[in-house]
Automatic annotation (TrEMBL):
GO cellular component terms, A-Z: cytosol
Entry-linked NCBIfam families: PRK11797.1
Function statement: Catalyzes the interconversion of beta-pyran and beta-furan forms of D-ribose.
Protein name in UniProt: D-ribose pyranase
HAMAP family xrefs: D_rib_pyranase
Lineage: Bacteria, Pseudomonadati, Pseudomonadota, Gammaproteobacteria, Vibrionales
Gene from which the chain derives: rbsD
Provenance organism: Vibrio halioticoli NBRC 102217
Amino acid sequence: MKKSLLINSEISFLVATLGHTDEITICDAGLPIPDATQRIDLALTHGVPSFIDTIKVILSESQIEGVVLADEFKSISPDLHQALLEELANDEKRTGKTITITYVSHEQFKDKTHQSRAVVRTGECTPYANVIFQAGVVF
């Protein structure tokens, strides 16, 4: 049995097979997921697992160099938006690598999910709690 933080087999495989600039989406319970994109559905009930808990676990095992967020996230859900920014800042300190943050409209965000290798659906029910991670390199 794995003893690291991430024990979900589908997400472990996804992270292990990401190449530089590959993208994965981590989303709330309501984001539409493209039919052609792999869906990793973690949602059990409202709020379980949470968006931030899922972010923390995925960041623990993956190197990212960029994120994409919806503009609406900042104004509609400012507390969760700030919590995400804090997790990204913690990851930058831990790895010594900069993470670029790009904001787009929610409609553009939904279109961009089509480029993701997979979409990880959480039980989060906070509006606009969605992020696209762009894989970086560990060297």
